[in-house]
Structures
1.
Amino acid sequence: MMSLIVFLSVVLVLGILYMIFRVSSLVGVAKAKEGKPDSANTVNAALFVVFMILSLVGFFWYSFTHFKSYTLPVASEHGVRTDGLFWTTMWVTVVAFVIISIVMFVFLYQYRYQPGRKAKFYPDNHYLELTWTIIPAIVLAVLIFTGLKAWTDITGKAADDAEVIEIVAQQFAWTARYPGVKDQTLGKVNYKLIDNFGNEFGLDLTDKNSFDDFKSLELHLPKGKEILLKIRAKDVLHSVFLPHFRVKMDAVPGMPTQFKFTVTKTTEEMRKETGNPNFNYELACTEICGRGHFSMRMPVIVEEEAAYNSWKAAQETWLKQNPNYLKKVPDALKEAAEIKAGIQKDPGAGVAAVTE
Ligand SMILES: [Cu+2]
């Protein structure tokens, strides 16, 4: 009832405002004298110029005083390149924006109504039209093709020795899967094998490469080595976002995606650069994926390659953590699986093979 009254009052007030506007404009028409311009015409035209000056000053003031709060330090090789592309595009569009704004508002003032001045009929000018078509076309083509080149490099084939890591998204957490240190190859997965008892990756245990894979809830990355992130989603759309590395790629159910990049600064180095001893990289979900979306973040730790390798070697394999899945391993591979997963010591090769 109350909302109905509020609604009707709003309609009534709008109706009254409309009637006042109609009456005043009709009075204006009745009072106007032929050929004498309204002084409000010049005032309005001048106000447009004032508006333009204030807006442009505000625009540049805001952009420069808050510059640091919307740019993050960059920590990847391709990030420097994409940042360069971003700022080139930004400057080209800012210059075009300023020129268009000035011309638009100054012309409004310059060509306001004045008695005795008639508009000139100027149907077309081929040179003018060619100029304002060809120049923007060339500039846009250069911007688009340099961007496309960068994109094909990022999403292209990774180096053979690249560090392959799988990122799996689900409502509302990220899980990483690393190839084990013994075979350095991710085992096969099949979404049909995903279950509620522990096989969250859908690991295919008939593939011997899966025996030493391990799971991590932190994303550890080596500095200076090419990394290939293989990304998939188990339920809805998510998106991998590593802002400092300028990495952003959607995680799509049923359609694996990937992104390759090389990190250039360790967490420690970034702490020194930012002057923040608590600095940490993070992986955030940047696709609204449900009500727990805000909590979908994963700590990221970047180390020198040696430290990274020793972290990897210290991790327990997935199969060792879920030994009841040994029954899914074909009989012929069972012993190899136990050795590779670190459940049983390798009797043939001795201690060296286990600690390798
Ligand atoms: Cu998400």
2.
Amino acid sequence: MLQKLEETYEQATAVLEQAGSNAELEAWYRAVLGRKGSVTLMTRQVGQLSKEDRPLFCRRVNEIKSVLDQAYQARLLKLSAAEMEGSLASEGLDVTLPGRRQRRGRLHPTTQTLREINRIWGDMGFQVYRSREVETDEYNFELLNIPAHHPARDLWDTFHTITPGVILRTHTSPGQIHAMREYYPEPIRVILPGMCYRYEQITARSEIQFTQVEGLALGKAITMADLKGTLVDFARRMFGADRQTRFRANYFPFTEPSAEMDVECILCAGDGCQVCRYSGWLEILGCGMVHPTVLRNGGYDPDIFSGFAFGMGPERIAMLKYSIDDIRAFWSNDLRFLEQF
Ligand SMILES: [Zn+2]
């Protein structure tokens, strides 16, 4: 019996050393130390032994079980480490593979147009003047020659805050007063870009928020000729050197005289098309000589100082430039639209 136990032990040890994978190791464990394993079965045969032989056999079988179990654990560790090394070697990081390309965003068409406008005015000596988007009624209307009873207030449907007299600016023009009060009595050459808000029905042609770029040139002996020369130069830099321009008389409360400037239609070059409504011209900005009352409100004496101001919409210019027929596209965050620019 003891003889058979030693044989079983030797055989089990030999097989264990041959086990080359975790699966083989598992099979070995079941065959030797499992519930119906060869060594386990031997312990159940103790009853067949004589009383004298029992203690020696029991001690030896327990020894063997313990040794085999330790050998099994050691073999398991060794095999796991080898398998890990093998998988690292075969599935390792291949640094010669080209990397995955990062999806890059791009600038919004309004931002692109705004930057182009800023660059051109910068080249012509104008500085960017930042002003707040929340304004008082005084700055947005009163100081710009639009008193409460003025019918021109109907032109600007306004968002009011819960604080009386505090509104979302309806145009960038209040920035003119801020700039004048800050620069007085120096001459001024600034552009005022920024977001404006109007309480309007949202349609293909009008949005409740839009970007505007205001401009102000102020000094001694600035005339309408300076206004025309500067704005024509801007239009040529923005739309091309051969682009024709024209001025049409208009009305704004804060300028006198006031005008609107058109450029020759970008799409049909003046022949007439759907975008220009067959006129051959596209309106791009409003302008005029700063009204004496506005000059005075800014601190400048209209008998000594004069200046011109203008305002344009980057979205409108982008719409003309890229033939966009719906202003709502700018704020809809639709990638199919945004990725075209
Ligand atoms: Zn046209």
